[in-house]
Amino acid sequence: MAKLVINNENKKSTIAPEIYGHFSEHLGRCIYEGLYVGENSDIPNVNGMRTDVVEALKEMKVPVLRWPGGCFADEYHWMDGIGPKENRKKMINTHWGGVVEDNSFGTHEYFELCRQLGCKTYVNANVGSGTVREMSEWVEYMTFKGVSPMADLRKKNGHEEPWVVDYLGVGNESWGCGGNMRPQHYADEYRRYQTFARNYNGNKPISKIACGANVDDYHWTEGVLETCFDHTPEQFHGFMDGLSLHYYTLPETEDDWNIKGSATDFTEEVFYQTLKRSYFMEELINKHGAIMDKYDPDKKIGLIIDEWGIWTDVEPGTNPGFLYQQNTMRDALVAGMNLNLFNKHSDRVKMANIAQMVNVLQSVILTDGEKMIKTPTYYVFKMYRHHQGATLLGSDLLNNSIVGSGKNELPKVFESVSEDANGVITITLTNNSLEADETVDIQLTHDAASYNVCEATYVAGAMAAHNTFENPEVVKEQEFKDYAKTAEGIKVTLPKCSVVSIRLNK
Ligand code: AHR
After folding, report:
1. Does 70 contact ligand 1 (Cβ within 6 A)?
2. CATH 3.40.50.1000 given to domain 16-258+299-388
């Protein structure tokens, strides 16, 4: 039996709501069909946004949405996506299937989507094939209230008031699809671009995010930070609010992107291998974090994990360039485990955006025409939503077992604990074992007797269990009843292959 000791007087960092963020790229059927069907669609919509999808996402609580890419961002020219739709330029989406992008979803549509979702905005600017002027004018178009060429153009296009850009990404994967740059070159570009991303809204400055590393490229992190912090006068402070990190979990092979493995048909060995690879995230946070600590010991710059999740082979028969994949209990565990890690490292991790929101990679929602299903990952995000904005509590898991074997060994249980503004404690746990349930003796160090379970839910099932359009509720959030109050707290039994959320109040 494992023991989870929660020190409920040890209040640590705030868990930024943005850790539960999402990513939507002009890729496959994420934007078009998945989120946006256009005003004239037979599918119920509000200003072109699918009502069923928006409602489901609101229930899950989306704090922030990154757009328009990804690799697409560095070939996106925002002016092609404004003004009357019939006049908008058509382009080839060279990265993703070579399909025609008609630009019917552009800046106005993105902000309308975020308005409907009630979420913050994270716009990724084009550094790879754009110009400083193009980016600077986009910021002016989006955020300037007064009289100026770009603000006037926005008004002419039907939006009198400026929008709020919460986060601005300066390039995407600039070490690869965003321009194949070297770290020092990118850092110099970053310095220049961010200078001209003006803060027109004095009360709410834009948080600027520099392009960080791919996986364990520590050379990139060191090179970018060293160059950025070289010759930085005092007034340069605020020049970087975040540094990104991208890490995808490939189930089958570590570096051969042609054999990633099936989303639904995999062995137990591959199941554990997937979880173990995903657990590598903690090492990445620690090692990139240690480099950041050298330059930013006060942790003012957030580590922004703005692309993460499982990347498998596409569903058989679908366009390989569309990255459409199913989502199983394995995905639920990957999500639950990573979100627990992000919570525990919330002193440095200030945002994370799972890739991608709908119909692409590890999605929370899949659509087929007018049909929509929620994936196992959806339920994990919904169950964990109570951590958003809460305070991380100190917790120690003792007597934890090991699952998997050989190079795939990893801890059986992952957990994190937070307390919200009303004093409600949320405990989220994964049981990574395919073989055995796990009883966890949860002990609170202070005032344990006053706490009672006020809500408890879980998802569980076979490792490859998933929802389909024919059978949409194979995996869903259910009431969790396997707990009992003890003198020190509560004792819970986690089913094998499950993610559990337990909430305690006084
Ligand atoms: O999410 C799919 C792609 O993965 C993104 O466009 C890119 O940034 C990353 O390589």
Report:
1. yes
2. no
Domain boundaries of the chain, sorted by first residue: 16-258+299-388
pLDDT at residue 257 in the model: 79
Residue among 22, 124, 127, 246 whose CB has most ligand 1 atoms within 8 A, to mutate: 246
Contact 210, 170 (CB under 8 A): yes
Report pLDDT for 231: 80
180 Rama class: left (phi>0) / alpha (psi -120 to 50) / beta: left
Q: Nearest 10 degrees: CA dihedral of 464, 466, 470, 473?
A: 130
Q: Using alpha carbons only, give the angle 131, 30, 324 rounded to the nearest 5 degrees.
A: 120
Instruction: Report, in this order, helix, strand and coil percent for the chain, each rounded to 5.
Output: 30, 30, 40
Q: How far apart are the first and last CA of the chain?
A: 26
Q: Is 313 in the pocket of ligand 1 (CB under 6 A)?
A: no
* Helices and strands, counts by H and E, the chain: 9, 26
Question: Ligand 1: which residue has its CA nearest to atom 9?
Answer: 70
pLDDT for 454 equals: 97
CA separation for the pair 323, 261 (Å, rounded)? 13
- Among 27, 245, 307, 311, residue to substitute to test ligand 1 (most atoms within 8 Å of Cβ): 307
Distance CA 165, CA 237 (A): 19
The size of the chain, in residues, is 506
Of 244, 262, 241, 242, give the one whose Cα is nearest residue 252: 262
Distance CA 133, CA 193 (A): 9
CB 223 within 8 A of CB 183: yes
* Amino acid at the residue 281: M
User: pLDDT tens-digit profile of 158-215?
Assistant: 999 999 999 999 999 999 999 999 999 999 999 999 999 999 977 788 999 999 999 9
pLDDT above 90 coverage of the chain, percent: 95
